Amino acid sequence: MNPLKYQMNIRSKLVYQFSLIVTTILILFSLAIFYFSATYRQNDFKKRLKERALTTAKLLIGVETIDKELIKIIDNNTFSLYNEHISIFKNKNQCIYQNFENSALEVNSDILNEIQFKKEIFKAENRKETLGFVYYDKKDCYLIIISAFDEFGYGKLKNLQIVLLIGFLVSIAFTIFGGFIYAGRALSPISKVVRQVEKISASNLNSRVDAGNGKDELAKLSITFNEMLTRLETAFDLQKNFVSNASHELRTPFTMILGEIELTLMKDRQKEDYVSVLKTIQQDMKTLSKLSDDLFSLAQVSFDISNFKFVKIRLDELLLQSREDVLKRRISNSIKVNFIGVKDNEEISSIFGNEQLIKSAFINIISNACKFSNGNEVIIEMESTKRDIIIKFIDKGIGIPENELQNIYEPFYRAKNVKNISGYGLGLPLTKKIIDIHKGKISIESEEAIGSTFIITFPNTNKRKSTYK
């Protein structure tokens, strides 16, 4: 996928969503302004209608020297409302004043009854608003009806509509324009990261993405990507070293077998010579088979553990079984197992794991301890605490140089002081992989010419539930 096209898609979505939010806010804000303005206009005009009607009523009822005709003249020649229409009734059925001759025709008994019952009514129809209310003077009751058209108020509302519409359109235009600029600037770091990532391949995995300020989300993404690149680089290096070392180690027995065969075929030999060559080839083939098995096991635990079944297993029993298996091959060695408060106690000596893998790890460590202990006794100690199950493998052998301890878990690595002892350097890497799979830890304490102590720690099964399916 073209990263620029992908960026434009994100940019368009951001602008669309941002514009939609702003549009919704502007619409709601404009509607609120118009609604409250219209409500204020209506209340204000209602107040003006009442004040205008009361002024006329007070002149008509309260001032005896002023007759109806004079009041009409005053109404017509003073500031009046547009299309103003006033009617005053005494005792509901007697019209005592109207500022237009046809005024009484617009008032029916239903309206008068409603005014008398509700004391005040207000109606708006075709923008003509009518107010009717009851007015008391001394002992008489008057019903006053006034209607008019709020030309000035509706004019202001019309002007407000135009202003809001223009403001809305201009705001949306600026929002879209500003949104594109803002989205472009916001996505520019992503575009920069994409360009940097495109330049990284298997040949330059040591390259890294610029993490910027190291604080924001994009910086965290870059840091995470750099950490992934580090893991990939490590994996590639391990793979290259593994392939290189495996090729070298496999080439040696093949070369020896081929050399033995070629040397034997150079001339006729006695039966005993052929038997001797076949036995040598047989030994080389066993060595090759063992190496192949170790390589397969290491590859399997490194890349695919789905075929291994994890159940509750007892470590004390596996230790004893592993000890017996090693002693069958190394009769001359002495291996002592000490249990500290765990023997015959299933609850504090069990973990969830794969019996085959754990047993293989134990056999590897015990075999190494025997092989490098110069015939000295190997001691195994198992102890269970509230949090962990701790197993120590102690030998009094040649030990490991301090400057080489950090390399012992690399495939095919062998310390300088064991070059004359047979082996391929696959046992400890395989053991560490197995321990890691079981959420355990492995460490070593070693001193050259004194001996080594391997310490394996598993989380106590009483403190956790199995995470394996």
Question: What are the SSEs and their pairings?
Answer:
Blueprint: H1 3-62, H2 68-77, E1 85-90, E2 94-98, H3 109-118, E3 120-125, E4 128-137, E5 140-149, H4 151-198, H5 217-265, H6 271-303, E6 311-314, H7 315-329, E7 335-340, E8 350-353, H8 355-371, E9 378-384, E10 388-395, H9 427-437, E11 441-447, E12 451-459
Parallel strand pairs: 7-9
Antiparallel strand pairs: 1-2, 1-5, 3-4, 4-5, 6-8, 9-10, 10-12, 11-12
Helix pairs in contact: 1-4, 5-6, 6-9, 7-8, 8-9
Give short descriptive properties of this protein:
disordered N terminus, 5-stranded antiparallel sheet, 17% strand, 5-stranded mixed sheet, rod-shaped, alpha+beta, 469 residues
Description:
This protein is an alpha+beta fold and 469 residues long. It contains nine helices and twelve strands. The chain has helices spanning 3-62, 68-77, 109-118, 151-198, 217-265, 271-303, 315-329, 355-371, 427-437, and strands at residues 85-90, 94-98, 120-125, 128-137, 140-149, 311-314, 335-340, 350-353, 378-384, 388-395, 441-447, 451-459. A five-stranded antiparallel beta sheet has the order 2-1-5-4-3, with helices on both faces. It has a five-stranded mixed beta sheet with strand order 7-9-10-12-11, covered by helices on one side. A two-stranded antiparallel sheet has the order 6-8. A hairpin with a 3-residue loop joins strand 9 and strand 10 (388-395). The longest helix is centred in the first third of the chain and has 60 residues, at 3-62. It is rod-shaped, with a radius of gyration of 50 Å. 21% of the residues are buried. The model is unreliable at 3-7 and 464-469 (pLDDT under 50).
